Every structure is written in structure tokens, then in C-alpha cells.
Amino acid sequence: MPRLDHYSLVRYWIAALACLLPCTASTQIILDVTQTIYFTPGTPRDGYYVGLSTPLASPRQGVTVITLSPAPTAVLEDSSFFEWQTPATDSVHLTYRIVANPLPEWGSPPAVTDTLRELADPATYVLPPLPRTEVGQTALGKAAREDVTATVERLLRVLRRTKAVRDPENFNLEQPLLEDFFRGQTTPRRKHELLSLGLQYHGIAHRLVSGKVLRFGTVLENQLWAEVQVNHRWSRIDLAERDDYLRENSVYLSCSYDYRNFSFTVVGPEVVDWRGEYQETLLKLWDAKDRALAKEDYPLALSYLDTVLQYAPKLLVAVAEKGLVVVQAGDTLTGMKYLQYVLNNAKQDDDKAMAYLQLAKYYALTEDTEQVLQALARSNTFAPLTLQVVYNDLRFTPLLENARLLRRLRDLYPEPTVYTEEE
User: Are 344 and 376 within 8 A, CB to CB?
Assistant: First the structure.
């Protein structure tokens, strides 16, 4: 656990939230995704078209649209796709919240099991047409092994011989798909279609997924990958990205089970600028809570904390923070009940350090300065304490205004000496 300095504890607990949230096959993620298309101001919009998808609502994905502007000219029945014909504004903006349990990658440890038991119904998925006779004469058709897992592994090894071209825009998309296999080169999207031919030939349940990939703060559109079901367990296969680190640090959001679909389309006479980015929802809500507190808008701050607890009911630091805000709003007794709950449920040292630190803030708000020192001392026994947490939190203002207590704090928790190169 890091030293307890200003708000590092909040980010630490939220980053560790994967261990606390209820999940199924893999870690649950909660993100706010923002996508904006910018047009050149003042230019005619005749001939412009924008199509933008949100992730599919499914047992693995919950989607809530937060902002949408301007009003789209057409909306798909399930509200998963929006169209703007000749948009009059200088930008098109969409923000949505996604709560998802992404699939594990193919080859991940078998301990990660799929408890959702999604059915693999071929009727619900659009797959490339299978020329069975031709495929049977290729290495794809001869890849059968002793079991399904071994057959998939063999198909992946066979497809490694087919290289992805660097310039997909100039690739001949009209040639038959198997021609790519014979020539040994294809596009990243069509490589998944080749995999589908092999999987279809061997009767292995799968689907091709068109969607978005979130990676390092940005949104990659119009991505395609495969999902395979073996022993009721779905796994994801991404043949477009060969870097293991990049795949492991990406979030895959399915938008369609029709491989021909694209998640983002823009057409116009001039090149437009577009941006896709995302934030961790809980951190975003926490920052909004801080801004509300700075304005002493306690009802608004509590509403943000209630939303955090809606997504993360076991996040003790949020329960404790709600107790402190309730105290600031004037209800000392109820606020203490929240803090007592946190103290009773803090089992690990890092939880106990946080609980006593928050208790110290409670005593600071009630101007019981001696109890503040005792609570800080208890916190310090579980995790190293830095006085920055006191200097940077307005709830400790009564301590900072008391020179005698401040000297005692400095004696108890001296700041580390920083040596320069000259010394």
C-alpha cells in the first residue's frame, strides 16, 4: 500500500476495486466513454453523414447513454446505433457509461470460468459463407485434432502463415476470401473471417464481433475479433494485435455480431476530426464530488457518492467519505454511524489505516483535536502516514490553526529529509 498522502488512498482503493466488485467471468469495468466528431465551423454540411454505435446491451454489458447532441436523425430500435444526416452543428457528441465483464483471452488460465453460460446460437450471428469443399482441401480443413481446444490451436498456427498487410485500404477486398489464404496475405479483419471458415468447417461454436477497443485512454473504432465457445466458456481471439501487452491492457466492447458492420462511419466532402476517450467512472464521480464539496453543495456531493456506492457497495472509502459529508451537512450522529460501519468492516491493514484516517477527519470536523491525534496515531500503525494528508484536506483546518497541535503533529510524523546532489 502507498503512503497515505493526499487522495492517493482513494485512487489506490478504486484501482483495487476489481477485487471487491461482483464479477462473473472476468474483472468488471465501469467506464465513461466520450466520442466527438468535429466539423470545420461555418462550412456547408451537404453530403455529411455520421453513424455511431454504442456497445450492445447483453448479459456482459450494460450501457447507459449520458449525453447525446444534437438529436440524431435516426435511432436503431434498441438505441445501439445513431445516425446524423447533414448535421447542422459544428460537432456531434456522444457520452455513455459502460459496465461490462469482458471475456478472457483465449489461452487464459482455466480457473477463469464463464458462469454466464451464454448460448452459441448460429442463427443470431452473421458469419462468412462457408465454401465447404474448397476449405476441406486446405490446411484449415485439415486442422482437426483430438479435441476442440487442440483444433483451435492448430487453426491459429496455420493462420500465422498468412500475414496482415500494412496498407489495408489498398487491398483487393473483392477477391474470394480463400484467395487471401493461398496468397499468404490478408487484412486484419479478413484474417478473422478466415479463422471463421476453419471454425465453421470443424463445427466449433463461435462468432465474429465488430466493436470498439479501449486502450490507454483512447477508443479504437471499427475493430473485429473472434469469440470461441469451448465447454460453455467463451474466449476472445484478436488476430489483429500481435503484442501480448497491448491485448492484455485493452477492453473489448462488442457492438454487433455481424462481421460486416462498423461501429463508426463518417462521410463528407472534407476530412473531419474526431476524438474518442474514456475515464474510470468512479474516479470521475469522485472528482465531481470534490468540486461539489468545494462549493459546499453537500446534497450534490452526496448524490455523487450514492452513485459510486451504487456501482461499488463494498468500497469502504466511499462509505467513510459519505459519513464525512453527512457530518459537514450538519448530521453528526448519522455521519458517525457510517464511520462506525467502516471501522467494524475494515479487516485488512490498508482498510484499517484508511478507516482511522477518515475517523481523524471526523474528529477534526467536530473540533475534538485530541481525538484527531489519537486517530492519526492509530492510522499510522497500519500504514505510513505523511502530513500532506493533513495539509491538503480542508477538514483538518482546525489543526492547522492550532500552532501547539501542529507542532505535536510534526514531532510525531516528521517529513522525510530530501538530499540534493550537492549534499
Answer: no
Q: What is the pLDDT of residues 188-206, one digit of tens each?
A: 999 999 999 999 999 999 9
- Evaluate whether 401 touches 364 at the Cβ level (below 8 Å): no
- List CB contacts of 105: < 8 A, sequence separation 6 or more: 235, 236, 237, 238, 247, 248
Report the C-alpha gap between 412 and 384 in whole angstroms. Answer: 12
Q: How far is CA 210 from CA 115, 156, 192, in A?
A: 23, 20, 11
Q: CA triplet 224, 100, 36: central angle to 5 degrees?
A: 65
Using CA atoms, how far apart are residues 262 and 256, in angstroms rounded to an integer?
8
Count of C-beta atoms within a 10 Å radius of residue 90:
13
Give the Cα separation of 148 and 129 in Å (integer): 21
Looking at residue 396, its pLDDT comes to 84
Q: What is the reported pTM? A: 0.82
Tell the burial category of 373 from Cβ atoms under 10 Å away from its Cβ (0-12, 13-18, 19+): middle
**Confidence band for 10, pLDDT divided at 50, 70 and 90:** low
DSSP H helices, 160-297, are: 177-183, 188-201, 244-248, 281-294
Q: Is the pLDDT of residue 346 over 60?
A: yes
First to last CA, the chain: 30
Buried b (16+ CB within 10 A) or exposed e, 296-328: eebeebbebbebbbebbeebbbbbbbbbbbbbb
Per-residue model confidence (pLDDT) at position 15: 54
